[in-house]
């Protein structure tokens, strides 16, 4: 076998995530030798997709067929201490943005919405911070 994945017992992440044509053709050759015959193009496409899943599962980079690569796995839940820290960080960020956002500048004075792009962005960030806290169920107390 001349395939890179098979010659290297510890493939790098990129090669583990994407099987080469060499691997694909080698596996199809094994299937043919074991009596399996090629299906139509649609089924070959599915088989190639599953072969990618097989390679990533074999390499420990994926948990199940069709599942996300390990790099995209859901991170473990936050501990209570981490949630407290994140809540405090969001509170600090909210205080900063609110203080900054409510002090108008000369650009705000000439803006038709009485809010310049920079100060408008402050209020957008405030909405994102509070949305993140709400989505994560984190209490933000200033
Ligand atoms: Zn402004």
| C-alpha-based Rg, rounded | 26 Å
Flag low-confidence runs. 1-16
* Coarse structural class: mainly alpha
| Order of helical and strand elements | HHHHHHH
Helix content: 55-70%
Overall shape:
elongated
Query: How many distinct domains?
Result: 2
Give the cofactors and ligands. Answer: zinc ion
The counted number of beta strands is: 0
Distance between the termini: 63 Å
- Portion of residues in beta strands equals under 5%
Q: Estimate the mean pLDDT confidence.
A: 83
Describe the main β-sheet briefly: none
What is the overall number of helices?
A: 7
Key terms:
142 residues, mainly alpha, binds zinc ion
Written description of the protein model:
Helix content is 61%, strand content 0%. The protein has 142 residues and is mainly alpha-helical. The protein starts with a helix and ends in a 6-residue tail after the last helix. Residues 1-16 have low confidence and may be disordered. Zinc ion binds at residues 104-105, 107-108, 116, 118-119. Zinc ion binds next to helix 6 and helix 7.
């Amino acid at each position: 076998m001349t395939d890179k994945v098979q010659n290297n017992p510890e493939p790098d992440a990129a090669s583990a995530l994407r099987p080469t044509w060499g691997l694909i053709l080698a596996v199809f050759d094994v299937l043919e030798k074991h009596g399996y015959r090629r299906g139509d193009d649609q089924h070959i496409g599915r088989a190639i997709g599953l072969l990618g899943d097989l390679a990533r599962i074999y390499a420990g980079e994926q948990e199940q067929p069709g599942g996300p690569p390990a790099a995209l796995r859901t991170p473990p839940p936050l501990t209570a201490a981490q949630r407290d820290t994140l809540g405090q960080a969001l509170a600090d960020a909210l205080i900063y943005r609110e203080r900054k956002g409510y002090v108008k500048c000369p650009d705000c004075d000439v803006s038709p919405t009485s809010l310049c792009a920079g100060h408008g962005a402050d209020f957008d960030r405030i909405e994102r911070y509070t949305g993140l806290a709400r989505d994560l169920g984190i209490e933000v107390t200033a």
